[in-house]
Amino acid sequence: MNEGSGGPAGKDTAERERIEIELLLEAIFRRYGYDFRNYAYDSIKRRIGHGMRALRCETVSGMIEQVLHDPLQLQKLLRYMVVNVTEMFRDPAFFRTFREKVVPFLHTYPHIRIWHAGCSTGEEVLSMAIILQEEGLYEKARIYATDIDQEVLRQAQSGIFPLHKMQQYTQNYIQSSGRKSFSDYYSADYDAVIFKPSLMKNIVFAQHNLVTDQSFNEFNVIFCRNVMIYFNKTLQSRVHRLFYESLGMFGVLALGDRESIRFSEHENCYEAIEPNEKLYRKLR
């Protein structure tokens, strides 16, 4: 896709390209129900460009024709349109704060429901399962791990991850105040590791689209980290409203380091649990 030169011809090209992209997103929504129409334009444009190059499609109009007539092409394009960047105990200070400030609160409940929205390949879901086990909370907890992408959900449900990532994950775990040896939680087999089934038994994996789907339970904690940075203001407001409606009173909302409840319609309904981390408690 062209970036445009900035002159009249460049502006004309950029305008035509934007129309094509909007038509592609509308086609994907009307044909398959995936709604990317309110994603941040520059971000979705980049991802469509990556997908087109990988699929050897020269024009956005050509991609529209392909995805309308071939569901397999749509699934291939989705690999590039959905961002799946994650790691276990990412931002260790965040998870350390969660242990110190949120876990004591969770001990007061007879049952715990936690929603990982946009869970990707499941690294943060397993991080939560480990924390809950170490804190004696796992047996009374149910973790709901959802994502728009069925393929990453299958990967998350397998509990299998590349061996070469374990060194970084181990460091993250230690810095997050992990209580045991991280290797106790998985077994290695050649170039991959598989996490213990005991970590997976209370996790429910399901497809859920934050853009179009509704609330499906009441939760004590909702994790949605580094997902809304790809949404425009309209979609961010929609998702904030969904999370507010899905949290029980005094429930905790966990966001990514570049996300915030500031300027959302529910800003005054939360208090910050820790000034340096994006953890918020619902008060009203």
UniProtKB/TrEMBL annotation:
PROSITE patterns: CHER. Residues 20-261 form the CheR-type methyltransferase domain. It comes from the Bacteria. SMART domains: MeTrc. InterPro entries: Bact_Chemotaxis_MeTrfase, CheR_C, CheR_MeTrfase, CheR_N, SAM-dependent_MTases_sf. One of its GO terms (molecular function) is S-adenosylmethionine-dependent methyltransferase activity. This is Chemotaxis protein CheR. It comes from Paenibacillus rigui. The lineage of its organism: Bacteria, Bacillati, Bacillota, Bacilli, Bacillales.
